[in-house]
Amino acid sequence: MLLAMMEKVFDEDFYRKLESISIKVRMTLTDGAAGGRKSKAKGSSVEFSDFREYTPGDDFRRVDWNAFGRFDKLFLRLFMEEREALLNIFCDCSKSMDYGEKNKAAMSLRIAGIMTYLALNNLDRVCLNRLTESTLVPSSSFMGKSSFKKALQFLESGSFTGNTNLAASLKRKDLKSRGISVVISDFFTSGSIDEVIKYLAFKKQQIILIQVLSEDEINPQLGGQVRLVDSETAEEMNLTITPKLLKTYNQKLKTLQSGIKSSAKKYGGVFFQLSTSDSLEKIVFEDFTREGIV
């Protein structure tokens, strides 16, 4: 099981919220980006560009019936200002993600599910990627709303274990075309996060980095003598937690976050932090909107 002794990640409540999100929000991740998606241009300024084969769930109004008459197959018309985007979502599946009363792994999977749904609803293609240790497990390419449940099944089929080297794992993905790359992680990783960002920039990706942390990690409520156990290595450490030590921890966390944000911004990307205590509505309608994701 993905998350033992835990409620199902994609339950009825998740689907109800997703329906609300789909009504209120349109995903515009690559608006204005090279090789991007929908332009606001209408009428004669929208020029024909290419065909692709129909996938169940696609808009029938885009079907070229003349092509169907010739080839006995359904094809969609694509336009210069309305090309589909390829969205790659990379999920950190290290053991440190499976942490917190409100679980980081569950939240990261829900975020991946929301982004997948919005992209498929906008006729984009999605590939999901699980990062574990120094390996990468990619899904097939999902297209059309009918493939959404298969995408969720892929997300739920993995496990959170080991110590993920984000750079080593992610660089196993040969990104052959421009697109959007979303990395969902706590970014407590071995290896260089700068290396991740530079690789995605070299591959001409629009970069979105989402840090998922528990409230215990954002505002630790510890004091006195404690024994800390590393969830990935099982290494133990005895510490005396003082206000000065907590202040140092908060400064180190802010330094990590500001460094990632600065590096992402250098290449036109965005970085932001979410809490597992945040509601899905806040994440989509406030955080995603603020960062220009929706």
From TrEMBL:
This is DUF58 domain-containing protein. It comes from Ruminiclostridium hungatei. SUPFAM superfamilies: vWA-like. Residues 50-252 form the DUF58 domain. InterPro entries: DUF58, vWFA_dom_sf. The lineage of its organism: Bacteria, Bacillati, Bacillota, Clostridia, Eubacteriales. Transmembrane segments: none annotated.
